[in-house]
Amino acid sequence: MPRNAEVIRQWSILRDLEASRRLTIDDLARRTGVTTRTIRRDLEALQTSGFPLFDELIDGKRYWTLEAKAFRRLDDTGFTLAELSALYFSRTLVECLAATPFQQDVAAAFDKLSAALTPGMRQFLDRLPLVIQAKGASAANLSGPGAAKAERERIARLLDATLNHRRATMKYFSMSSGREKDYTIEPYRLVYSPGGMYLQAFVPEYKDLRTFAVERIRAVSLHEERFTPAEIPEGAFAHSIGVNEGPPEHIEIAFEPRIAPYVRERRWHASQRSTDRKDGGVVLALDVCNDWALRSWILSFGPLARVLTPAALARQIKGEIDRAAERYSVE
Asked: How many CB atoms lie within 10 A of CB 34?
């Protein structure tokens, strides 16, 4: 069984126990679609990890339960004022998730945290977002409260399908074809990236793992049929500057001296390595996939960047620049 499937199943067990107060091993096996032997191993693993799970005999039946106030020990952690303030301030940093089903839970958690602060402290901390802000995703695609609610409901269904390994049918608008299409999918995970949320799902029709923009999902319906997920990389889009999957290529780009300081100070990708040039410029080496995200990033530097290798990428960039120049030809 792939490791990610085990973790997701165990998280589902915790969630079911919290929602239902008490369940039998047979109940959990039916809900997760695995054997009672597997459930026993999961419960043992969760207990070993420190989760407060207990079993009790009621009317001759053994039930499992999760302690209602599992994190009451938080009171004894001795948070400093600075730590509490930092946590409270981080509220502004998670507002980018406001369109997800977590919005109410996040708001409730911060409301409880704020109760530990004096009114004067809260008044002071509420001013901090004016001087430090986090720019989240644009919500321009949502026409009103109704649209936002519909998107939250779609994401909630996708989370349900992901956590419980349920197949789903999705109506999706494809930018490439300009039309809506129905897909049968096996959702693997949701990934938030600045600018939007994305679904990674296996599509049996194509026998391929694909990435879908959640904002273009028009409808989702869940099946009772379950699937066994395959192993996927822990890091989403690990080889892309953007939100794509693909094999990495070795890319080298030379930047002119006047843009070099800006290039040096930023972390564009985990694989990057920079080499200074005698003229004050810099060569950036990356091991990333050659996708539109990479090409648009290179083009954003205009004449201040030049692809050294691979030659095929250099030709692609030149072709894009030539086509752009033709559009701006002055008679």
From this structure: 20
